[in-house]
């Protein structure tokens, strides 16, 4: 099994037809079919279900597609990093980002970097904090922008910004007298909670002996804001996320509680010296 076979297999798997894949690869169909059959013979499994209407992947084919894509991506990253090792003037930079980092990235310095070095290509991988930390551990990305709290020994980091939590309050639930809320005020409204901070919030509610109604829990802070805009409840999110809200019928109210703070950080493996390209990215923040 070699990279050329894997690339041929990925083309067929993604196109859903050998004919279409052959056209994309600028080759004839018979040689492509032969290469796929050779790959199946080498592995001793059937990778494709062949029919007149097209092809589908067998379970073995689905598994190989996932591994093949990772291998091809790793090869491309290795090739790009080796070629740009000298000065970091060109290459592919794989960056993991969380959804709630949109207030901090991209910034003016990063735009300057990409303008001065037009051969630098940035590939973004979106996931939650622990998903990105796992990608770093597997060397699938170079660097990640994540949000505290998290536990991940073996990572070097650079702090971007620390911010407090705020409440995104639709007019429907805006009966508060003060512009700044206390945690206790949240006991009287349905809450939309970003799952990333669910444990932090529940610990606080238990300590203060209150039991707010958690109307919705979601995996994306932007979704929490959208649901608040739809008057489904009051969203509790980092300030930078709330500032992106566009609804005219909502208010963003600070929450007066010091422990409800979170920090955006750039992280990368501490045991690996950043390449010049990665270091340029880190220095742009």
Within the CATH hierarchy, at the fold level, what is the topology of the largest domain? Answer: D-Maltodextrin-Binding Protein, domain 2
Radius of gyration equals 24 Å
Give the oligomeric state: single chain
CATH superfamily of the largest domain: Periplasmic binding protein-like II
Helicity level: 25-40%
Shape: elongated
Number of helical segments with 4 or more residues: 10
- Kindly name the structural category: alpha/beta
> What is the number of independent domains?
3
Query: How many beta-strand elements?
Result: 11
State the end-to-end distance.
42 Å
Question: How much strand content do the residues show?
Answer: 15-25%
Instruction: Please summarize the sheet with the most strands.
Output: 9 strands, mixed
CATH C-level label of the largest domain: Alpha Beta
Query: SSE order, as H and E?
Result: HHHEEHEHEHEEEHEHEHEEH
Family: Belongs to the LysR transcriptional regulatory family.
GO molecular function: DNA binding; DNA-binding transcription factor activity
Domain HTH lysR-type: 1-58
Pfam families: HTH_1, LysR_substrate
Give a written overview of the molecule.
The structure is a single chain. The chain has 285 residues and is an alpha/beta fold. The chain folds into three domains: 78 residues, Arc Repressor Mutant, subunit A (Orthogonal Bundle), CATH 1.10.10.10; 99 residues, D-Maltodextrin-Binding Protein, domain 2, CATH 3.40.190; 100 residues, Periplasmic binding protein-like II (D-Maltodextrin-Binding Protein, domain 2), CATH 3.40.190. The chain is 39% helix and 25% strand. The chain contains ten helices and eleven strands. Strands 3, 4, 5, 6, 7, 8, 9, 10 and 11 form a nine-stranded mixed sheet that branches. Strand 1 and strand 2 form a beta hairpin. Helix 1 packs across helix 2 and helix 1 packs across helix 4. The protein starts with a helix and ends with a helix. The mean pLDDT is 87. Belongs to the LysR transcriptional regulatory family.
């Amino acid at each position: 099994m070699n990279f050329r076979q894997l690339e041929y297999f990925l083309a067929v798997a993604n196109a859903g037809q050998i004919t279409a894949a052959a056209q994309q690869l600028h080759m004839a169909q018979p040689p492509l079919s032969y290469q796929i059959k050779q790959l199946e013979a080498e592995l001793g499994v059937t990778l494709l279900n062949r029919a007149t209407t097209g092809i589908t992947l067998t379970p073995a084919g689905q598994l190989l597609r996932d591994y093949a894509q990772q291998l091809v991506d790793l090869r491309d990253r290795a090739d790009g990093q080796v070629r740009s090792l000298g000065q970091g003037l060109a290459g592919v930079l794989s960056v993991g980002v969380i959804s709630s980092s949109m207030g901090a990235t991209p910034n003016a310095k990063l735009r300057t970097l990409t303008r001065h070095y037009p051969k630098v290509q940035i590939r973004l991988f979106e996931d939650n904090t622990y998903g990105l930390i796992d990608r770093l551990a597997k060397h699938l990305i170079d660097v990640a922008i994540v949000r505290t709290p998290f536990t991940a020994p073996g990572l070097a980091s650079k702090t971007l910004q620390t911010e407090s939590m705020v409440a995104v309050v639709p007019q429907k639930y805006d009966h508060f007298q003060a512009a700044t809320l206390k945690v206790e005020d949240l006991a009287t409204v349905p809450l939309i909670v970003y799952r990333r901070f669910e444990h932090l919030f529940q610990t606080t509610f238990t300590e203060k002996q209150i039991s707010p109604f958690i109307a919705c829990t979601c995996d994306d802070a932007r979704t929490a804001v959208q649901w608040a805009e739809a008057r489904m409840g009051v969203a509790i999110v980092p300030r930078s996320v709330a500032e992106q809200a566009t609804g005219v019928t909502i208010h963003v109210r600070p929450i007066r509680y010091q422990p409800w703070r979170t920090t955006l950080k750039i992280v990368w493996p501490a045991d690996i010296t950043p390449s010049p390209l990665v270091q340029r990215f880190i220095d742009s923040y």
